[in-house]
Amino acid sequence: MAPSALLRAAAAALRRRARIAAPLQSISPLTHTPTPPPFPFPDPTPIPAARRHLITLTRRPCPNPPSAAASSYYVDRILLPSTFSRPFSTEEGKEDGVPAAASWVERRLPEAARPYAMLARLDKPIGTWLLAWPCMWSIAIAAMPGELPDLQMLGLFGCGAILLRGAGCTVNDLLDRDIDNKVERTKSRPFASGALTPTQGVCFLGSQLLLGLGILLQLNNFSRVLGASSLLLVFTYPLMKRFTFWPQAFLGLTFNWGALLGWAAIKGSLDPAVIVPLYTAGICWTLVYDTIYAHQDKEDDLKVGVKSTALRFGDLTKQWISAFGAASIGSLALSGYNAELAWPYYPLLTAAAAQLAWQISTVDLSDRADCNRKFVSNKWFGALVFWGIVFGRLTS
């Protein structure tokens, strides 16, 4: 039977039950109706941004059974939702008091696969972008003058970024599961909420690392050794917040390893004059965006006793991240100069600097939603630098 026919049949059944005075189960709309019915009913809570309608059925009998006319009024005007509330999520579920829209993971994947996809943060691609951009910068700057970057290598590193970021998140959540359930933003993550067990997480981590190994084996021997050495950072970074106020610096060392690896995959060696400034630029950039990100959790971090640069910098955060932003842009300029990139690189680098300055100057560090928006905007900073390198190399 078609879904519309099922809905009509259900509505007719409810009307028949109301006519024979059978008590209806309580129906609670989430949106305001223009003309309320002539009997006491729970005060609706409007959510203008969401505009969703939801039928909530309970087992308790309604204290004031509605009349047949009133029940028909609601049955005719309330629709079943197209999406349902989420059992868990990897990030905060609300922004400005409005429930976040369901991600593609919740809409498209089978229910059994959703916890694993959310554990790998497939519903939050910003982390993958932030991990991939330093790789892409390095591959592009290693291209021959007048040529585009190696597209096959860009594809390999893109897949590797997805897998390595997912593995890092799995390690992080395994080690932090007892902390995550005490932090508002993270208490609904798969381990903290009980959606997955640690054993399932370890098996999932093994599969991610195995697939990553398959990508690594397609590179040259120097890159294989260099890539495998990054696993030490991947496994130790999540512990840093317990011992130092600078876990964001360790994240920078980890997330920007691709700045070394991309060049090595093309050239088979490292050129310190180009790669060291590029790696330094990525680390300073990470200190900017992840300090902004950490301000979302500073109250909870104080309660559970973990550390971050957000707590270390405090009221001086904007001064600190301004200095790191300037260091990042300066290092990128030095790397491009040493790599002999042509003039188109510098206007786009200037645009990237303006984007970074906009983030720092306008972010409201006391507003979690604004911190998250500025954090997510860093994908555009990475894109501006990448295209600057591409055009600078094409015209050099």
UniProtKB/TrEMBL annotation:
One of its GO terms (molecular function) is 4-hydroxybenzoate polyprenyltransferase activity. GO terms for cellular component: mitochondrial inner membrane. Keywords: Isoprene biosynthesis, Membrane, Mitochondrion, Mitochondrion inner membrane, Transferase, Transmembrane, Transmembrane helix, Ubiquinone biosynthesis. Residues 34-45 have a biased composition (Pro residues). Residues 25-45 are annotated as: Disordered. Its EC number is 2.5.1.39. InterPro entries: HB_polyprenyltransferase-like, Prenyltransferase, UbiA_prenyltransferase, UbiA_prenylTrfase_CS, UbiA_sf. It catalyses: an all-trans-polyprenyl diphosphate + 4-hydroxybenzoate = a 4-hydroxy-3-(all-trans-polyprenyl)benzoate + diphosphate; 4-hydroxybenzoate + (2E)-geranyl diphosphate = 3-geranyl-4-hydroxybenzoate + diphosphate. Belongs to the UbiA prenyltransferase family. This is 4-hydroxybenzoate polyprenyltransferase, mitochondrial.
